[in-house]
Task: inverse folding
């Protein structure tokens, strides 16, 4: 197999498996925030702001995987 | 058609300097925002006209939101953070106009914005607390964590940049692929989703910038 074929497989594995973890994490975070809002509806302002920041932090992992995939596909240092 | 999202998109050359599409769009957005503010505040009155009222509502809302994040004299940081938010919103939503590509979908613009946040957080932190007190932040809770604290400064700026770029660019690419596969009308719901993504990413970018600056200028520990 050539480097190009391995790069495509690597990009696919990076994005697919890199999306699983953040997806589970974001689901848990949103569920916890929903629970908190249901218990205390008046705290929706600070809760949603913290939720957004937290989601952004979790999402960073998936975006790192996306960057790795893009580097493999478009800026691969091992391809001529 | 050049598919690579990392390749520069050169429109024309100004002497030896190549001018890319994001630069032109960025300058157009800045000119538009300046013109709008000049029109709205040209004859500022107490009994405000429609445009002045809209601008005042925007500024007041931004001020309230930033005050909820930065507790210590937040007024100094509203111009920077508010401008960041308005610029990123307009840049993300510029994809609605046919033929315009959002400048945040190229790596250079988010890089410049993240560099602005990085430098201004340090400068404002040193201004607010003094050099010694600000530098001692990195040795807390223990001197052993100094390398990790420095590393986190770099990685969080990097992730600030890549988050904005990755979201906007990947959204553009998804629309291109859907248009390629399914034709004319199926991309429309994706484009509506793009409006939501653009506003949320601008909000997240500004909130994170505010959190970084707030952590730099305040004495208490925030994330």
Result:
């Amino acid at each position: 197999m050539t480097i190009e074929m391995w790069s495509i497989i690597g990009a696919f594995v990076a994005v697919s498996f890199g999306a699983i973890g953040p997806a589970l994490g974001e689901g848990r975070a949103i569920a916890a925030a929903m629970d908190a809002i249901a218990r205390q509806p008046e705290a929706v302002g600070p809760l949603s702001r913290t939720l957004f920041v937290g989601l952004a932090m979790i999402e960073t992992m998936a975006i790192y995987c996306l960057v790795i995939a893009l580097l493999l596909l478009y800026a691969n240092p091992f391809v001529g | 058609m050049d598919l690579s999202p990392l390749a520069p998109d050169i429109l024309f050359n100004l002497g030896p300097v190549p001018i890319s599409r994001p630069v032109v769009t960025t300058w157009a957005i800045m000119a538009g925002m300046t013109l709008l503010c000049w029109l709205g505040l040209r004859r500022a009155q107490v009994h405000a006209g429609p445009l002045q009222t809209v601008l005042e509502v925007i500024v007041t809302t931004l001020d309230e939101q930033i005050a909820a994040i930065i507790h210590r004299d937040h007024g100094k940081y509203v111009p920077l953070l508010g401008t960041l938010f308005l610029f990123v919103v307009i840049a993300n939503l510029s994809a609605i106009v046919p033929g315009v590509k959002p400048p945040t979908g190229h790596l250079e613009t988010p890089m410049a914005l993240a560099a602005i946040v990085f430098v201004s957080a340090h400068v404002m932190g040193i201004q607010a607390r003094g050099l010694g007190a600000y530098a001692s932040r990195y040795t807390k809770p223990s001197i052993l964590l100094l390398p990790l604290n420095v590393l986190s400064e770099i990685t969080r700026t990097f992730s600030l940049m890549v988050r904005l770029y990755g979201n906007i660019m990947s959204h553009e690419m998804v629309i291109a692929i859907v248009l390629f596969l399914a034709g004319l009308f199926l991309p429309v719901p994706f484009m509506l989703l793009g409006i939501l993504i653009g506003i949320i990413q601008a909000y997240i970018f500004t909130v994170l910038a505010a959190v970084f600056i707030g952590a730099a200028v305040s004495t208490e520990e925030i994330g």
Residues 32 and 38 of chain B are 10 Å apart (CA to CA). Chain B has a mean pLDDT of 86. The two ends of chain B are 44 Å apart (CA to CA). The interface with chain A takes residues 3-7, 68-69, 159, 162-163, 166-167, 170, 200, 203-204, 207-208, 211, 223 of chain B (CB under 8 Å).
